[in-house]
Amino acid sequence: MTASTAGSTATPLLEARAVSKEFPAGGTSLTGRATEVLHAVDRVDLEVFPGETVGLVGETGCGKSTLARCLARLYDVTAGEVWFDGRDVTHLSRREMRPLRRDIQVIFQDPYGSLNPRRRVGSIIGDAFAIHDLEKGAARKARVQELMELVGLNPEHYNRFPADFSGGQRQRIGVARALALRPRMIICDEPVSALDVSIQAQVLNLLIDLQDELGLTYLFITHDLSVVRHVSNRIAVMYLGRVVEQGTVEDIFDGARHPYTKALLSALPTPDPDVADSREHVVLSGDLPSAVDPPSGCHFHPRCPRARADCHEQQPPLEPVDGDPVDHTTACWHPLAHGESLTSAVPGLGIPAPEEGEP
Amino acid sequence: MRLLEVQDLRVSFSTDDGIVEAVRGVSFDLDRSHTLGIVGESGSGKSVCTQTIVGLTRGATVTGNAFFDGVDLLTAQPDELRGIRGKRIGMIFQDPLSSLHPLYRIGWQIREMIQAHDSSMTRQQARTRAAELLGLVGIPHPEERLDDYPHQFSGGMRQRVMIAMAMALNPDLLVADEPTTALDVTVQAQVLAVMTRLQREFGTAIVLITHDLGVVAEVADDVVVMHAGVVMEHAPRRETFYHHHNPYTEGLFDSLPAVGAGRRRLTPIAGTPPSVIDLPPGCSFAPRCPYAFDRCWVSEPPLARVFGDVHHWSACWLPADLVARTAIRDRLRAETAAAGETAEGAAS
Ligand SMILES: Nc1ncnc2c1ncn2[C@@H]1O[C@H](COP(=O)(O)OP(=O)(O)OP(=O)(O)O)[C@@H](O)[C@H]1O
Ligand SMILES: Nc1ncnc2c1ncn2[C@@H]1O[C@H](COP(=O)(O)OP(=O)(O)OP(=O)(O)O)[C@@H](O)[C@H]1O
Ligand code: SF4
Ligand SMILES: [Mg+2]
Ligand SMILES: [Mg+2]
Q1: For site-directed labelling of B32, which of A275, B5, B220, B327 has its Cα 20 to 30 A away?
Q2: A244: chain B residues, CB-CB within 8 Å
Q3: pTM
Q4: 3-state helix, strand, coil in chain A (%, to 5)
Q5: Percentage of residues in chain B with pLDDT exceeding 70?
Q6: B61: Cβ below 6 Å to ligand 2?
Q7: B319-336 burial: b if 16+ Cβ within 10 Å, else e
Q8: What are chain B's domains?
Q9: B 239-258 residues with CB < 8 A to A
């Protein structure tokens, strides 16, 4: 199996140090200002150690994909540093990046949209070799067919088009393409979200087997908490551009400290009627606020059942709560005690109460 | 009388590739205040089945019956249907964006809908009702939001607007096709809470299509499992989850990452759903089924009562007796585990 959580002495394979990414936002906001900034990722620290899988979870728009793109250096960061294998790679030029591109690969969410429908599968998978000018002619074909076999595709289907494959098979094509250059790190951005459960299971098995065989390291992005629990060693929970809690799978699922983590877990539908009937249901009111004009202090305070005055004022640091291991960190002024419930703080028994609208 | 009784519904489309038998004999019924969950892989016929019932399939050959409060929706006259669809039957579609018109204000769209079915309402009354509905589904400051356009609402809010519209006339039946699939879990929880609260208040019956077995565990009373256009299993919620009979249902559950199981390998269902053009004889699941035996390849199993439970139906040739069925499953599991060990032993 994989390396368990590495000790703090090991060097992370991939590391974000206070990474921020801003996008210019149009002047369509209520305030009517022409130039505004959208804080997609806001001073995120994240470490991924060799051989482990770190799960990144959070609601739509919280900045998961943007962070992933910054880490893969597909985006330039606005501030902060990206380190790979003990080296600061934040400002490498295109040319200097080339070897790095081979080491870090990204698998995207949509198995339908991310493959060019007019190109044959063999050449799609062989792209990486073409870009890096490696393996030509028959040698390239042999390598591609090897890859197809590795991910469970029939190598004889080398000349077929993406449309001739099922959803799960197309996602395998994406995986084969990502594996072509023997990367050390794979960033999986919602690799199974668009798939039926049985096909999802095939792809998850494949990713886990490949990790065990090839010693791969994964950053695994998903909004599906049961999937993240299945594949991850450690989990980082994001909210509106920030990491609000980070820890091992057990820390997060059995000992969540942050009210947002707790709410997210309680909203997760469980395919088990007994559990569904008996567990506490916290229904968060409101939607994710705008990243253009995020709430002051703790970003979560407008939706948080535990929020008090101080939460509006200062941003809570991401730190271990008293008694927690150093690698279980939480950004909250009033973290939950172990086993403490959130429901007591929610008015209206889990039915979304009308709340204040946008500022 | 049941509120909804669907009997041997068959829907097919004639295409260049041949006849697509999307729904091949589906029967189920539903009472007031109850929720029926319909699950199954992509293409199993969930949408076609429910869309046909509410009269939204075009260019299809349809046979069978769908009695709604005694009226057969499939043969009723257009003016009789007008009083039912939209008014006594509300509908929510998967994609909230495509179902709200982008160029009209939210309030206008709800008002139009109300007035189309209730011409006695004045403009002002309809507007007040629209605001009331938005409030009911948890939209803050509903009066002010009536003048917004759809793009000014988030995905979750638009989906709640769709629910508000579907519930506007207090329908007896709500048909919801993947109403929360595009939403985050926290927003999904809000939307499901709104639906169940409205059900409690108004006694609405709900048909809920979803691919998420977790959602089914949360809200369904009964579950229909579909594969290749037929009902494979139909049972109360707990039986579906804890004592399923059908190998397809078993396959769906074995595919799920189980809580607390950690990084174990999952057991996917073999292969992919069959094409519903020119289906071979026998059980449509046979080519993917680990239990398939002679009979399965020859004749298609009918949906029949199993486990001595009048509410539990399964379309499968395996024994309908709980002890016998369980023994067969346990034997298969033992064999699979043994095969896995030999394979590992050979590899190392
Ligand atoms: N290229 C871009 N230009 C402007 N804004 C962007 C861009 N990419 C992302 N954003 C914004 O940044 C924020 C974070 O988006 P991102 O795609 O990283 O979220 P996510 O967590 O991956 O969401 P999802 O779960 O929906 O994939 C959002 O508000 C989004 O609208
Ligand atoms: N108008 C049409 N013409 C031809 N075939 C159709 C038509 N509509 C649906 N089908 C086919 O009927 C079958 C059932 O489709 P349906 O949309 O009901 O599946 P579903 O179970 O809702 O799947 P999903 O989970 O992907 O929504 C599919 O094979 C589909 O391709
Ligand atoms: S800091 Fe305050 S508002 Fe933020 S999560 Fe903690 S209690 Fe809630
Ligand atoms: Mg994303
Ligand atoms: Mg459908």
Answers
A1: A275
A2: none
A3: 0.86
A4: 35, 20, 45
A5: 95
A6: no
A7: ebeeeebeeebeeeeeee
A8: 4-220 (3.40.50.300), 245-347 (no CATH)
A9: 241-242, 251-257
